[in-house]
Amino acid sequence: MNVLHLDLGLEFRGGQRQVLYLACFQKLKKQVHPYLVCPLNTPLKTKAPEQGIETLTLLPDRSLIREIGLSSCLFSREKISI
Q1: Strand pairing category for 33-39 and 54-58
Q2: Which of 10, 34, 57, 62 could covalently link to 23 via disulfide, CB atoms 3.0 to 4.6 Å apart?
Q3: Number of domains present in the structure of the chain
Q4: CB burial class (10 A; 0-12, 13-18, 19+) of residue 78?
Q5: What pTM was computed for the model?
Q6: Domain hosting residue 66, numbered range
Q7: pLDDT digits (tens, 9 = 90+) for 24-81
């Protein structure tokens, strides 16, 4: 199962720490492949790959509408479940 986590935070605080912990825990489960979507040049974007978590970059203006439109092929290609 592929799981997509979305975080809009620009700093690394409690919420970002929680989403990274959750993704790391899911990565331990062989049936789950987590992805993190976050803005470019954020601490989470740097820390996640250090833990082996694949990241996707949110557009600089954080436009969800355009990101969802551009990433619709990702959902079908990667078969994102949640």
Answers
A1: parallel
A2: 34
A3: 1
A4: middle
A5: 0.75
A6: 2-78
A7: 999 998 888 999 988 888 999 999 999 999 998 877 665 554 555 545 545 445 566 6
Q: What is the DSSP string of 52-78?
A: T-EEEEEPTT--HHHHHHHHHHHHHHH
User: Residue 1 in contact with residue 81, Cβ under 8 Å?
Assistant: yes
Query: Residue 38, exposed/middle/buried by CB under 10 A (0-12, 13-18, 19+)?
Result: buried
pLDDT of residue 65: 47
What is the DSSP-derived secondary structure letter of residue 24?
Answer: H
The answer to whether residue 19 scores a pLDDT higher than 90 is: yes
In sequence order, the 6+-apart residues with CB closer than 8 A to the CB of 11 are 42, 43
